[in-house]
Amino acid sequence: MRFSPLLSELIDSLTCLPGVGKKSAQRMAFHLLERNREGALKLSTVLHNAMEHIRHCSQCRTFTEKDLCEICAHPQRSESGVLCIVESPQDVLAVEQTMAFDGTYFVLMGHLSPIDGIGPEEIGLTILESQLKENPVSEVILATNPTVEGEATAHYIAQLCAKYKIKASRIAHGVPVGGELEYIDGNTLTHAFSGRRTL
Amino acid sequence: MRFSPLLSELIDSLTCLPGVGKKSAQRMAFHLLERNREGALKLSTVLHNAMEHIRHCSQCRTFTEKDLCEICAHPQRSESGVLCIVESPQDVLAVEQTMAFDGTYFVLMGHLSPIDGIGPEEIGLTILESQLKENPVSEVILATNPTVEGEATAHYIAQLCAKYKIKASRIAHGVPVGGELEYIDGNTLTHAFSGRRTL
Q: What are the pLDDT digits (tens) for B119-178?
């Protein structure tokens, strides 16, 4: 015996969510059926709308249902002439929450990873190149993750900037504020030493 | 800055799933948008159908989109004359997987819990009583969970059975097969001793 066909289908469909296996999907299905049918119906509608309407911003490639995202559409932001390059829309949010940056972004939606077949084209570097050619910015801040792939991507984009004589900078890597030296890994500490600044 | 309105709404809606907070919902939304729009659209449809069509079986109260669930509709199962009472549809599945029971079920969809306002009516005991009155079974097996509420519920239903002179039995509680005495909690061990059987 299995659950009724429709219930089995619901459980199967819920496993499309990341980190949700058979057991969690079962728990979710029963929770929604027993306690939150209204929420589930709303989720169904929003899910449909989101999948149908959310596209990439034509300028920075982040997710948005409009042609230009809020930041790209903001006149003062594009005037600043500073472009920050990040790997994902979540990174945009993280930078925005610091309130320390008032330029525009370019979201790669990934990083260079030739082994997975992800080249410059896939992470939108052709779009970025044409943007740099047409509207040169005063500085490009490379805020990709400090992983091997992130570093390689930053390096690649730095070369691209050099080609158009645009200043490229990399965000600092070092000891996190509030962190204790004792517990910092060697790699980070090496970065902290090589990136030291004169006081 | 926040995400675009539709994306924020999607993230909010995903938190209606149990065990999914803001961060997990964000991760899910981005995963679906980036990698599995098709799966998300399917989930949206199935979710809608399930919430609209899945109701309770008119006989055993489990979830089904038909009037009678598969087990209640099975002629041989109702002939056996044994009724097993469980707390949830998941429990039905657990018992079914043992292949050791061929009677029918009654699903309480909860347990007696006066403190939360859950009385006999809420867990379908009025329906159960009228069923026992009209179609007396030869035995009622009480398979509620061995928690305080589960025991109280079992006790209440046993009294109901006594009223209609129906044999009521409780599933055995004791040391799980494959378990080691050393690691079993005292409560379970007490049950195992008081429920001992002559060999």
A: 999 999 999 999 999 888 999 999 999 999 999 999 999 999 999 999 999 999 888 888
Which strands, in side-by-side order, build the sheet including A167-170? A104-107, A82-86, A139-142, A167-170
Residues in B touching A46 (Cβ below 8 Å): 6, 9-10, 13
How far is residue A77's CA from residue A103's CA, in Å, rounded to a whole number? 5
CB B99 within 8 A of CB A4: no
> Tokens 């399917």 — which residue?
B42
Report the residue count for chain B.
199
Cα separation of the two ends of chain A: 73
The tokens of A107 are what? 């979201």
| Domains, chain B, ordered by start | 5-53 (1.10.8.420), 66-170 (3.40.1360.10)
Give which of B2, B6, B34, B93 to mutate to test A binding, by max A Cβ within 10 Å.
B6
Cα separation, B104 vs B131, whole angstroms:
12
A76, with CB counted inside 10 A (0-12, 13-18, 19+), is exposed
Distance between B135 CA and the closest CA of chain A, angstroms: 24
**B178 phi-psi bin (left φ>0, alpha ψ -120 to 50, beta other):** left
Q: Which residue among A13, A26, A39 places its CB closest to the CB of B16? A: A39
Is there a contact between B143 and B157 (Cβ–Cβ < 8 Å)? Answer: no
Pick B4's closest partner by Cβ from A32, A40, A70.
A70
Check A44 against B27: CB less than 8 A apart: no
Kindly report the number of other CB atoms within 10 A of residue A108's CB atom: 23
pLDDT digits (tens, 9 = 90+) for A90-137: 999 999 988 889 999 999 999 999 999 999 999 999 999 999 998 889
Cross-chain residue pair A17–B28, CB shorter than 8 Å: yes
Contacts of A28 in chain B (CB under 8 A): 17-19
Enter the DSSP assignment of A176: P
Residues of chain B positioned with their CB less than 8 A from the CB of A51? 32-33, 37, 40-41, 44
